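Working notes for the structural subgroup meeting. M.R. asked for a predicted model of this chain before we commit to crystallization trials. I am recording the input and output together here so anyone reviewing the notebook later can reproduce the run.

Input as submitted:
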Amino acid sequence: MTQTLRFAAPDADAIALHLVAPDGLDAVLAALPEGQRIWAQHHGFAAGLAQVCALPGAVGRPDGILIGRGKAADRARQRFAIGAAIAALPEASYALATPLDGAEGEEIALGYLLSLYRFDRYRAQTLPKARLVAPAGVDTARLERIAAAEALTRDLINTPAEDMGPDALEAAARALAGQFGAAIDVIEGEDLLARNFPLIHTVGRAAARAPRLIDLRWGSGARSLTLVGKGVCFDTGGLNLKPGASMGLMKKDMGGAATVLGLAQMIMAEGLDLSLRVLIPAVENAVAGNAFRPGDIFTARNGKTVEINNTDAEGRLVLADALVLANETPADLTISMATLTGAARVAVGPDLAPFFTNDEGFAAALSQAAAQVADPVWRLPFHAPYETMIEPGIADLDNAPSGGMAGSITAALFLRRFVPDVPKYAHFDIYGWSASNAPARPKGGVGMGARAIFRALVDGLAP
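Returned structure, recorded in C-alpha cell form:
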C-alpha cells in the first residue's frame, strides 16, 4: 500500500455533507429551496442507507450532498456503508455538516479511512478521490492510527507466500520494532532445537525458508500484555496434503501474525501504558523428505508429548511452543490469534471473530468494546467435557481428534494446556479474509478482533 489513510485539512470551500435519517426526511426536504427539493424527490432520495443525492448549485457545483442514514437495522447489517459512500464521491473536499459523536460518528469516519485502502504492490490501483475534512466530535488522530495498523494487517495477508515467507514476516516485525523503538529477538532454524522450541522446528523443517520464532518487546507499563500470532506463511497441509481448492487461500494462514502485528502497531502508536510482548512462530508447512508424518509423536517445550494425527493441524503445534514461552513469564493478559480451524467458520461464518477466554471480565469488556467499534466478536466455550477428545492415550495430547466434532473448541482446549499459569487467557480463531467486496472491506485480507481488543485496552477494561 503506497497511499496514506488520512483525513483532509480544513477547507472553507468543502462541500457540505448532510446525513438524513428516514424519519427526518420530510423536515429536511421542506427546509430545502424549492428547486433542490424537487430535484431530490425526482431522484428518489428516501434517506436509505448510504443513498446519495447531490444538490445542484447555481454554478454547476453541488450546493451540498444528502446521504441517507438508513434505519438502525440496515446500519447493523451493513457497517461502514456511509463512510464507504463518502469515499466513493467525486473528487472534491467534503465536510460533514451533521454533528457526529459516539459510536456512529467513529464508524462513519473510520469507514471512510478504511475505504481508501488499496493493495497496489503488484498492480496500480485507482484511488478514491474524495477528501473528507477531519470530522468534529471524534478522535480523528486515533482513527488514522487504527486505519494505518489495519492497512499493515491487510498488506501482510494479501502478499503472496513467495514474497511473504518467514523471512519476510520477520522483516515486517523488525520494521515495526524499528519504527517504535521496540526490542526484537529472532530464533531461527536449528537454533530452535538448541533453545527448546521443538514443535516450531518440526512444522517448519521441510520448507526451503527456515522456521523461526519472533519475539518483540515494547513499553514498561505496570500492566502486561502478550500477543501470540500464528505465522504459517503457507500451509500445504504437509503430508496430509490439502486439495487444490483448499490450498488456494493459504497465503492467509499467517493472518494471526498479521493481526497481532497490526494490533501491536495500534498499541505502540497510541503510546498505551503497557508492557507489550509479541510472539510469532513463523513457518511454512511444506512437503519434503524430512516433513513430519501422521503418527509421529513429538515433545513440546513444556515436556508434553503430542501425537500427530493430521499434519494439516500444524498451527496449534507452533502456537504451543510460543505459548509455553509466554507462560514462563505470565503477563496479566495473554491473547493468541490464529486462522486455526475450518470449524470456526462453520460455526459463525466469515464475518465474526470467535474467541475463547477463561476470564468473565475480559469477555464482557471485549463484547462491549466490539459493539462500540463495529468489530464483531462472539464467545465460544472452553467446554471441559471435551478435554478427553484431545487425549489419545499413546501421548499426552492429540493434535487432530477424530470425528470432526467441535473442532474449534478442541483446538482451543489444546492451546489452553500450554498456558496453565497465565491469569487471563483468550484465544481468537479468526478467518482474516473478506471473500467479496463489502463497504470498507474489499475482497482480500482483513483484520478481525484487533480493534475490539484495542478499544478494551484504551478504555482500561483489560487486562
